[in-house]
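TASK: fixed-backbone design
INPUT:
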């Protein structure tokens, strides 16, 4: 009996192996799946009595509430001799206390409630955000409203903010990647506010009065869009918002006129000498804005070129085939207020600098010469369409999307039609937009590294202009 049991167990052990041998091999490349069905989430749009626009989305899964305020302002609107004003105002807005709550008490209260309030101002957008437990909504919202309506900009916090900015400027040349990025954008946006960066002198000249005036000019309820999501009742949250901002009066907000940047038709080779073993390479030129009808074809084109990881041309050749870099990619950023940029970037060892540059230039130029392959087009379109869903992973991200679309003036139905517009892009479209919007003969190139270690002189790519980094003082 024991012998029979042993034979039976041995036979059972063989069954999986026999089944595996008998089962046909499945090639994952030939697997098919039903089409992904995804309905773009919507929000409710409400306008408060004071003119503030609110996008609402309830979510009762967790006892949390998030609110993000989008304010119509930005560093592009600051005076040239006050570069850094918007960034400083954005930081001290939250950190400098309010007319009703000292900076210390503000911090202590938020910490006790496990709430968070943050603020910042970028190139064309100001933000103030808050998150809290539902039970602490009333007090956190009151503090949030104080930041927006009555920041104190306390003098010692202004000085602290300036010192932090000045220290960051002193260290701005430490990271060669940051140096390359900065010098590329300064050149692409030459003589434009988008190409300005704070200096020690410009930050040192800023005063508390400058921050107060900046806030007074742009912070009005009719210049604010709120994105509100989380655990709340619609009627109750609207009542709380009306109450929190009841005393905030509408204001006359007119953004200064800022001319669009102009493209430079001349190529440039810029060298920043730095004693490092790895060369940082950046290249690019002025791009398009969000209103360009070729936006979708450009997105597909760039995905094939360098925006889709290991399947992109830049990555598959420069990293996978030649082994010259860990990362190489490209980006065609559609500007929201002004034309954006096309950029390509990599880092490689000094002894392969010229080879990497030549390959990048050749791959970019080749996009303008021949149609892409069917498999490249299909993969790029599917990648964009299938990743679309990840922009809506949380209720907060949904309301943020809707609020930002309104803030930047995107057309009605932009999100709903996005995947369809991507799916319509053809090989002919990709070649056409590559020839129209890629300018390999007019690119600005910034190289940071030790030219003595390069495999070829940088002058083989054009007349070299050395950039002397501003000394920190």
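OUTPUT:
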């Amino acid at each position: 009996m024991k012998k029979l049991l042993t034979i039976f167990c041995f036979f059972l052990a063989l069954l999986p192996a026999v089944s595996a041998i008998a089962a046909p091999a499945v090639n994952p490349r030939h697997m098919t799946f039903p089409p992904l069905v995804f309905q773009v989430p919507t929000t409710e749009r409400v306008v408060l009595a004071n003119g503030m626009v609110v996008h609402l989305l309830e979510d009762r899964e967790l006892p949390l509430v998030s609110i993000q305020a989008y304010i119509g302002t930005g560093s592009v609107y600051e005076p040239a001799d006050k570069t850094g004003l918007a960034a400083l105002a954005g930081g001290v807005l939250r950190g400098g206390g309010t007319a009703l709550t000292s900076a210390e008490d503000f911090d202590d209260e938020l910490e006790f409630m496990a709430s968070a309030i943050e603020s910042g101002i970028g190139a064309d957008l100001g933000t103030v955000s808050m998150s809290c437990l539902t039970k602490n909504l009333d007090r956190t919202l009151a503090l949030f409203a104080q930041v927006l309506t009555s920041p104190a900009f306390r003098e010692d916090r202004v000085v602290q903010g300036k010192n932090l900015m000045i220290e960051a400027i002193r260290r701005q040349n430490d990271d060669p990647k940051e140096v390359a990025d900065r010098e590329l954008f300064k050149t692409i946006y030459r003589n434009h506010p988008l190409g300005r960066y704070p200096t020690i002198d410009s930050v040192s000249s800023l005063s508390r009065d400058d921050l107060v005036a900046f806030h007074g000019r742009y912070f009005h309820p009719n210049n604010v869009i709120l994105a509100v999501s989380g655990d709340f009742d619609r009627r109750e949250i609207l009542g709380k918002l009306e109450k929190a901002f009841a005393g905030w009066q509408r204001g006359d907000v007119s953004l200064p006129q800022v001319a669009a940047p102009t493209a430079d038709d001349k190529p440039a080779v810029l060298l920043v000498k730095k004693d490092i073993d790895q060369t940082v390479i950046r290249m690019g030129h002025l791009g398009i804005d969000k209103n360009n009808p070729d936006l979708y074809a450009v997105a597909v084109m760039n995905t094939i070129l360098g925006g889709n990881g290991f399947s992109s041309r830049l990555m598959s050749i420069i990293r996978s085939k030649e082994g010259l870099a860990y990362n190489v990619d490209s980006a065609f950023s559609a500007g929201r207020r002004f034309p954006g940029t096309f950029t390509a970037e990599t880092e490689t060892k000094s002894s392969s600098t010229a080879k990497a540059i030549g390959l990048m230039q050749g791959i970019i130029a080749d996009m303008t010469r021949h149609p892409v392959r069917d498999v490249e087009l299909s993969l790029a379109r599917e990648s964009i369409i299938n990743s679309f869903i990840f922009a809506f992973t949380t209720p907060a991200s949904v309301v943020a999307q809707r609020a930002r679309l309104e803030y930047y003036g995107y057309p009605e139905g932009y999100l709903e039609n996005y995947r369809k517009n991507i799916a319509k892009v053809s090989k002919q479209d990709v070649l056409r937009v590559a020839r129209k919007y890629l300018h390999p003969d007019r690119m600005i190139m910034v190289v940071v590294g030790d030219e003595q270690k390069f495999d070829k002189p940088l002058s083989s790519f054009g007349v070299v202009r050395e950039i002397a980094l501003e000394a920190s003082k």
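COMMENT: Residues 1-21 have pLDDT under 50 and may be disordered.
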